[in-house]
């Protein structure tokens, strides 16, 4: 017998086999539908009041009516938001314009221009009409056979038999249609209360995602450019200066004129190098990361820290530069933490790229108790969030510490 | 002395300023620069010549500016084991030192370009590599030594100094000079050190350096 979660009245609509659970599920949905159907009465009253309040406002009476009816509609809509949201396992957010700092008479005027308030109106009218039709059917089909059964018991003639048969057929329809009807009602309410807002959010998320992709590609390219600029510019010039000065030193006695020329050349080169340095703004991309990618850079990292680090990487070829950079700096931070804080004697870095995500694990045998809210790990988490990546820290007191980095990275 | 003066070198460096500078320094010391190339393909061709006594190679070469120089040098040494190669770079990476040393033959060097400015030391390194010795940048050695901190606890600080200088490729005489002790004392420290680290005893300088580097690189 497998454990299953207890049935909740307002849990999501579930697909279940025809068992006791399936029966319970339908009974639960019928109870919810009854609630939906019963809400038609207050909904009708509120709906009429709201609609009437608009023309009545011309003679002033509409304002007090609206001040009562509109918040009532919002309260009713709030209940429906919770119920339908629970049935769909979703959240249906409310987004009313803020009128708390306005006068009593100014509020209804603002409400007239608030789309969210009109959505409430649409919802109460839906509850009183189409919604009522959708939700009343299930409870009616379920209770209809009861009077027929009474009739049949009292007068077992052919009309009673026929009605009882029809009632049985109705029960079959109830069994089949209840989940779909309940779900249809919840979906309709979600569409009315949040539909276009959700669509607008989806469009915005698309835009944000696109621009964010651009930003991170740009910043990786920028880092690479800075690294190249330093390598080809200031560093090369300084090395040339060193050579010229070194050679001038050798020539000083033998050929003082040539030495003087070399020193002058060196002096000019240092000026150029300084100018190069000024033009370089910030940050250096580790050269080994540029040369060898994430795998090589992690191996190099393992060699450079004063702790034996076992590295095992699977399928980590060249990844997009920004992912390589973020993953490298994340691993470097975790390894640095192991060296600095954990008193570990060994550490390991494991990495897998399965074609859709890169998963890296950094573990050590130290004392544990790593603080996931410390600035280092928070910085790592923030960096990974730009890639929809995540960081999980498992570090019980006494160790071991295991940090898991997960970055979506389709090939 | 006459065959030292005739040492023939190949220089591979993509930065024109540095290529000219290196050539100038080598030639000023009587080393014949037979070829000064600027990319990996030209380097591979240049290294097939039979009479090359040493190659001075930049790690990063065109076309991709990754580690073509290093790879060309390793490939050439796979064909001609023991071909002396001194690799220069604007940064040093213990990982690349490990790759260079993996063949276990010696006659390799790996130095920061900054070291070229100390012209005499640089020329000494070139000749040492040409003679089959091993020269590692102090920065690489420091990184390798720092990661073996725990086993090195057993060494005295003097023994650690000797180990570090040895790993850079210095001879017993040079180590003795640097630490202002006698060569005999250096020999004694080395024997103690080898015993403590379970390293097999080796008679000549170069074998000993390679043994130390292999030990530092392990694990």
What does this structure look like?
The complex is a heterodimer of chains A (411) and B (219). Chain A has 411 residues and is α+β, with helices and mostly antiparallel strands. In chain A, 67% of the residues lie in helices and 8% in strands. In chain A, a hairpin with a 6-residue loop joins strand 4 and strand 5 (401-408). The radius of gyration of chain A is 36 Å and the shape is elongated. The relative contact order of chain A is 0.06. By secondary structure, chain B is α/β, with parallel strands linked by helices. Chain B is built from twelve helices and six strands. Chain B has helices at 2-5, 16-28, 40-46, 68-79, 94-101, 119-130, 138-147, 149-152, 157-167, 172-179, 183-196, 205-217; strands at 8-12, 32-37, 54-58, 85-89, 108-112, 134-136. The longest helix of chain B is centred in the C-terminal third of the chain and has 14 residues, at 183-196. Chain B is globular, with a radius of gyration of 17 Å.
Largest sheet of chain A: 5 strands, mixed
Count of separate DSSP helical elements of chain A: 12
Helix and strand element order of chain A = HHHHHHHHHHEHEEHEE
Residue fraction in strands of chain A: 5-15%
Mean pLDDT of chain B: 88
How many E-type strands of chain A?
5
Query: Number of helical segments of chain B?
Result: 12
Tell me the helix content of chain B: 40-55%
Strand and helix order of chain B:
HEHEHEHEHEHEHHHHHH
**What proportion of the residues of chain A is helical, as a percent range?**
55-70%
Radius of gyration of chain B: 17 Å
Amino- and carboxy-terminal Cα gap of chain A: 42 Å
Mean pLDDT of chain A: 84
Question: How many DSSP-defined strands of chain B?
Answer: 6
Overall morphology of chain B:
globular
Q: Enumerate the strands of the largest sheet of chain A in spatial order, edge to edge or round the barrel.
A: 1-2-3-5-4
Whole-Å distance between the termini of chain B?
A: 42 Å
Oligomer: heterodimer
């Amino acid at each position: 017998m497998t454990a299953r979660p207890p049935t909740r009245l307002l849990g999501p609509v579930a697909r279940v086999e025809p068992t006791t659970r399936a029966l319970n599920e339908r009974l639960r949905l019928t109870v919810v539908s009854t609630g939906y159907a019963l809400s038609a009465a207050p909904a009708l009253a509120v709906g009429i009041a709201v609609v009437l309040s608009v023309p009545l406002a011309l003679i002033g009476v509409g304002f007090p009516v609206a001040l009562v009816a509109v918040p009532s509609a919002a309260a009713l809509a709030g209940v429906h938001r919770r119920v339908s949201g629970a049935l769909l396992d979703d959240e249906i957010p409310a987004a009313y314009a803020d009128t708390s700092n306005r006068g009593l008479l100014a509020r209804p005027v603002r409400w007239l221009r608030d789309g969210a308030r009109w959505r409430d109106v649409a919802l109460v009218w839906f509850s009183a009409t189409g919604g009522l039709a959708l939700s009343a059917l299930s409870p009616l089909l379920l209770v209809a056979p009861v009077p027929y059964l009474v009739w049949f018991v009292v007068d077992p003639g052919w009309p009673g038999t026929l009605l009882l048969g029809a009632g049985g057929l109705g029960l079959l329809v109830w069994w089949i249609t209840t989940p779909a009807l309940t779900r249809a009602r919840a979906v309709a309410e979600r569409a009315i209360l949040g539909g276009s807002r959700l669509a607008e959010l989806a469009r915005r998320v698309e835009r944000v995602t696109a621009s964010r992709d651009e930003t991170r590609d740009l910043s990786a390219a920028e880092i690479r450019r800075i690294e190249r600029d330093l390598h080809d510019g200031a560093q090369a010039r300084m090395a040339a200066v060193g050579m010229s000065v070194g050679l001038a030193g050798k020539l000083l006695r033998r050929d003082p004129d040539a030495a003087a020329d070399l020193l002058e050349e060196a002096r000019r080169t240092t000026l150029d190098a300084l100018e190069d340095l000024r033009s370089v703004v910030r940050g250096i991309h580790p050269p080994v990361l540029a040369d060898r990618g994430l795998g090589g850079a992690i191996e190099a990292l393992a060699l450079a820290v004063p702790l034996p680090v076992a590295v095992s990487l699977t399928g980590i070829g060249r990844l997009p530069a920004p992912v390589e950079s973020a993953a490298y700096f994340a691993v470097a931070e975790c390894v640095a933490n192991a060296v600095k804080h954990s008193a570990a004697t060994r550490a390991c870095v494991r990495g897998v790229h399965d074609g859709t995500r890169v998963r890296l694990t950094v573990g050590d045998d130290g004392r544990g108790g790593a603080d996931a809210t410390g600035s280092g790990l928070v910085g790592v988490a923030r960096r990974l969030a730009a890639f929809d990546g995540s960081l999980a820290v498992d570090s019980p007191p006494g160790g071991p510490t295991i940090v898991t980095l997960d970055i979506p990275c389709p090939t | 002395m006459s065959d030292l003066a005739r040492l023939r070198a190949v220089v591979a460096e993509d930065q024109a300023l540095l290529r000219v500078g290196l050539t100038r320094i080598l030639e000023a010391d009587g080393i014949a620069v037979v070829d000064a190339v600027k990319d990996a393909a030209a380097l591979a061709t240049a290294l097939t010549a039979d009479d090359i006594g040493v190659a001075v190679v930049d790690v990063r070469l065109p076309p991709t500016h990754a580690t073509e120089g290093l790879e060309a040098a390793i490939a050439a040494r796979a064909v001609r084991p023991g071909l002396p190669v001194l690799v220069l770079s604007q940064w040093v990476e213990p990982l690349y030192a490990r790759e260079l040393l993996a063949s276990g033959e010696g006659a390799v060097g790996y130095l920061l370009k900054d070291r070229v400015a100390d012209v005499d030391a640089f020329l000494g390194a070139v000749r040492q590599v040409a003679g089959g010795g091993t020269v590692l940048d102090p920065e690489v050695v420091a990184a390798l030594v720092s990661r073996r901190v725990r086993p090195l606890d057993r060494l005295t600080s003097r023994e650690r100094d000797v180990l570090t200088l040895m790993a850079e490729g210095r001879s017993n005489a040079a180590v003795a000079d640097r630490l202002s002790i006698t060569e005999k004392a250096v020999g004694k420290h080395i024997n103690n050190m080898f015993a403590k680290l379970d390293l097999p005893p080796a008679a000549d300088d170069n074998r000993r350096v390679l043994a130390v580097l292999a030990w530092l690189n392990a694990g």
